Amino acid sequence: MARITDINRIKRLKDSTMKLVVEKGFGGASAAMIAIDAKVASGYFYMHYKGKYEMVNSLLQEVFQEAAYKLDEYLKTEHSFIQIVEEIVDHIFLIAEKDPVKLKFLYVLSNDYSFVIDDEIRLNVFNFLKRLKELGQESNSIDPEISEEDLYLLLLVNSIQYINLRFKFFSAKGELTHADKEHLLYLIQKVLIQNS
Amino acid sequence: MARITDINRIKRLKDSTMKLVVEKGFGGASAAMIAIDAKVASGYFYMHYKGKYEMVNSLLQEVFQEAAYKLDEYLKTEHSFIQIVEEIVDHIFLIAEKDPVKLKFLYVLSNDYSFVIDDEIRLNVFNFLKRLKELGQESNSIDPEISEEDLYLLLLVNSIQYINLRFKFFSAKGELTHADKEHLLYLIQKVLIQNS
Amino acid sequence: MARITDINRIKRLKDSTMKLVVEKGFGGASAAMIAIDAKVASGYFYMHYKGKYEMVNSLLQEVFQEAAYKLDEYLKTEHSFIQIVEEIVDHIFLIAEKDPVKLKFLYVLSNDYSFVIDDEIRLNVFNFLKRLKELGQESNSIDPEISEEDLYLLLLVNSIQYINLRFKFFSAKGELTHADKEHLLYLIQKVLIQNS
Amino acid sequence: MARITDINRIKRLKDSTMKLVVEKGFGGASAAMIAIDAKVASGYFYMHYKGKYEMVNSLLQEVFQEAAYKLDEYLKTEHSFIQIVEEIVDHIFLIAEKDPVKLKFLYVLSNDYSFVIDDEIRLNVFNFLKRLKELGQESNSIDPEISEEDLYLLLLVNSIQYINLRFKFFSAKGELTHADKEHLLYLIQKVLIQNS
DNA sequence: GATGAATGAGGCTTCATTCAT
DNA sequence: AATGAATGAAGCCTCATTCAT
What we know:
The structure is a homotetramer of 196-residue chains.
Chain A: H1 2-28, H2 31-37, H3 52-76, H4 81-98, H5 100-110, H6 119-138, H7 148-168, H8 178-192
Chain C binds a DNA duplex (21 and 21 nucleotides) through loops.
């Protein structure tokens, strides 16, 4: 019972942190504010984290790690290159729908020179990308010009940017639709795929 | 009668602000720190700006405005769609080389939910993109699927992300080269251009 | 679970604030100075008050409210008009002796255009004065020319001015004595009382 | 011509200072604010005064001195005690009408422990009061219980308080009228005059 | 004489962090 | 384990004052 309470506390803390860091920025989201939003005592998170930066950073790594893990799972399905690309875009859109704050959090902090993804996690992601590229090469699907860095940029960064652009500027266009996803996928595939 | 406002002071202030906002984030770059770096009195910028946020924001708008103006100039040259796309990428690489801090500043703040580009400036940029799209359509160069938002994403956001990815992660790969620019241009043109 | 709010800290804070506002004026009494004098952390009073002005103002209202309450108590004793006038002067002299800072604080801020007594409290005081006047009329003790405003001026303002004049200028005359009180009472009664 | 300009500058400076000190308090009225209000350069008054405090203080002394001088003039008229009392109240009401800011300024600063009237000026005033008292005694008009301090309190302080109470609280009662003056005079004379 | 750009000490306030409970 | 009162360093900003023009 005590265990469950604790897990809920930490969950709430993480959610509130992501929400407020997105809304106000790292500096603008105060520990007190986060604690109130999470219905937790302000001293609470010093039991789990060394400080505010450590907490936000560890949250960022966690979110990234989770994504890296998800990517690996797709690889294990032994689906084709094109299918996996599609599944990844699908997955990012799913997060955008189910947990938009998480996607915004990723967007904000991954474009900040004060936060850097841990080498280990980055390595995981690039290992995945390397294997994805190889998969594409095996089936002659991928444009040989495309590097891992390009995959990172076009598949991951681009998708996150596409969605956040909608959240931030083009919200007038309404909710993200299935057509939006198809359109993004069209663009991505157009760059990645080998021309005849 | 009295001293005349010193342009150099303001220039130094702007440069230091961009530099430190990039390095430490908006919250991490303190007014005192910026003032010292700019060799200016700590109270100095309250003569020109209402506060720290206003200053950084006005700087962001200024940088954006300058870019919007540059874009319009390219349009006036009456070059072709493909040429203009190339010139824009060229120009972004030029900034990356001559004033990398400015590009980082743009990168960091344009991916922050606390800073929003003024409607007027955004309108300028989208007017340009609209005309660029029309130019592409006239010559049947542009893929009809491409919208103004796509142009924004693929041409501008993507270029900035590409370069900052290098600054932030792949700095091990060394300086940006001519080949890097060609590669990016290849990717962009591949998405934008109409398939035969 | 956590520490319980320390009443003494707040008491010390209030005392130091009154003392320093009297000595140096509202602007001259800095938050840091007050905190040191009260042996409290400099940020402490922002836990209880929104800012320096709010704190001093709330203190002023509190002191006034306390006085208004005291006045009502005298009315409830069912003593005569003349007795109550005497008791009020007595009471003011008592404060002058036991807590001179409080009387000085009242004096300084009630003569400042930046601080205004809350409507509710002023209403309380004037309700009291109205009933006091009625009491005087019932026993034909009060000069019919005397209005509530006059009672305010002559009974309250005058007494406070009388004592503070001594504190500020005529301190050479030494401590306030019983004779001083009798003299003031004589003056007040002379104006208030109905001539034969 | 240069001379006239200068006198106007100083006049405007004094007026603005009084106005703003009344409205915002000594600490709240900044030098820049005063300078703007007076249409004068902010550095201007450091040509005439050592600092802000010196300026406000010298202004206060000046106003007081002017009053002391006026009082002496009334004495020279060889009017009766009662007449002079009336003329003083008249005069204070006249200031209230012609230059209310000056009266507010006097009110605010004379009730502030940070500003003290210069000994010399206070002496002038008390010499006047002494002679006024003697005048009253010669004609058996004044209550023998009344001291110079009482005259100060009842004649000067009281009048200023009476008017400022109207300005600050009872402004709903409208402009000061002739009847108001008569009423105040009635109260003052009632305390001061010897009962048959 | 007069100006107002520039300074920097010091004011107010926030907030990450600690620690008694 | 969890709380939240308390701390004080450090942030933002104001403003009296100086001084080049």
